[in-house]
Amino acid sequence: MPITSFKIGDKVVYPNHGVGVIEQVTRRSIGNIESSFYCLRIVATDSTVMVPVENIRAVGLRKVLTRRETGHVLKALREGEVKTYDDWKGRFQANSEKMRTGDIRAVADVLKSLTMLNEVKPLSYRERKMLDRARFLLVSELAEASGKKAEDVELQIDEALGESLKGAKIKVEH
């Protein structure tokens, strides 16, 4: 996959932080090395992050989904089996790795599996926080990509998860 270059004004996703806007591209010297950085403003927190241009792949910086891709994500929430670990530590580690990838489908998978698990038993504090984070990331990106209000996207996600719960197939790995 070729490294994508971004320009000022592009909307991007910074893994585990959400949607951001490239506000400038700047060059900075650190010691003897001069590097280019994308300066992006994270929409949800209004914070600024500087990402070295040569590290965008490593950190998972990517463009926001297309409108068409939002449908694929909702379909994934609606259909298919859910894989989860019986062991809390293994489950938490696997879900944390998925969240760090920045892949929206992986985040959707975390949301779906933790939602299903929450129907069976109460989640731990850390898993509850991860569920909330996955939901926030999914809602904010799908809203941005589709041009819809966050509240409307939340309803779509809830409907998709509700359909998934009806025919729930949870595969527990040991």
Sequence-ordered SSE layout with sheet pairings:
Elements: E1 11-14, E2 18-30, E3 33-42, E4 47-52, H1 56-59, E5 62-63, H2 67-78, E6 82-85, H3 88-101, H4 104-120, H5 125-146, H6 150-166, E7 170-173
Parallel strand pairs: 6-7
Antiparallel strand pairs: 1-2, 1-5, 2-3, 3-4
Helix pairs in contact: 2-4, 2-6, 3-4, 3-5, 4-5, 5-6
What is the CATH topology of the largest domain? Methane Monooxygenase Hydroxylase, Chain G, domain 1
Number of strands: 7
Mean pLDDT: 89
Q: Portion of residues in helices?
A: 40-55%
Structural notes for this entry:
The protein is 49% helix and 25% strand. The protein starts with 10 loop residues before the first strand and ends with a strand. Helix 3 runs antiparallel to helix 4 and helix 4 packs across helix 5. The strands form 2 sheets. It has a 5-stranded antiparallel β-sheet. A two-stranded parallel ribbon has the order 6-7. The chain folds into 2 domains: 53 residues, Thrombin, subunit H (Beta Barrel); 107 residues, CarD-like, C-terminal domain (Methane Monooxygenase Hydroxylase, Chain G, domain 1). The protein is α+β, with helices and mostly antiparallel strands and 174 residues long.
